[in-house]
Specification:
It is a single chain. About 20% of the residues are buried. The protein is of the alpha+beta class and about 140 residues long. It has a five-stranded mixed β-sheet, sandwiched between helices. The protein is built from four helices and five strands. Bound molecules: coenzyme A (COA).
Length: about 140
């Protein structure tokens, strides 16, 4: 199967079971504030059209969440099912994410990858993303 068979579209409520299954497999160590139902609920309330899924033969096997805040575009939860990797599907998901962000006037995309995630770092470099010399901050809001 090549990337040409992949259908990329915005998330719909019928995708919930597939998406939660995919994320549970791909992100088993996500912190509690990244609970899949919560991520989905919050994203559907803000730019829901930028929550993309990739479907092969009627099954969701890839996701990417995008956002544009008027200054930067951000990418989260890019995931391809482990059984479907290295067929160009991750690249195709990112190309569609970039296309949609560019169409909104977004000039630059930022994203974060855990430093230990060497394969994913190589993936993003292959797509033209550069490691930037910033310190990443975060704060949980109550
Ligand atoms: C990152 C990820 C989405 C890539 O998906 P994919 O469909 O396998 O990627 P592609 O097939 O489109 O890869 C495109 C190119 O990127 C590079 N690449 C992809 N995965 C790589 C890896 N593990 N190591 C080194 N290079 C890699 C290769 O150059 C590849 O081209 P090639 O297969 O012709 O050599 C997938 O590995 C994944 O879901 N990882 C876990 C989730 C994650 O950590 N996501 C990022 C957090 S936002």
């Amino acid at each position: 199967m090549n990337a040409g068979s992949l259908v990329i579209r915005s998330y719909s409520e019928d995708d919930e079971t597939d998406v939660i299954g995919l994320w549970t497999t791909v992100f088993p160590n996500d912190p509690p504030w990244n609970d899949p139902p919560g991520i989905i609920r919050r994203k559907l309330a803000v730019q829901r059209e930028l929550f993309l899924v990739g479907e092969l033969a009627g099954r969701v096997i890839a996701t990417v969440i995008c956002g544009y805040d008027g200054f930067r575009g951000w990418i989260y939860h890019l995931a391809v099912s482990p059984t479907e990797r290295r067929r160009g599907l991750g690249r195709a998901m990112m190309a569609e994410a970039e296309r949609r962000l560019r169409a909104l006037g977004c000039p630059k995309i930022n994203l974060q990858v855990r430093a230990a995630n060497a394969g994913v770092i190589e993936f993003y470099k292959t797509l033209g993303y550069a490691v930037e010399d910033h310190t990443s901050f975060g704060k949980l809001l109550d």
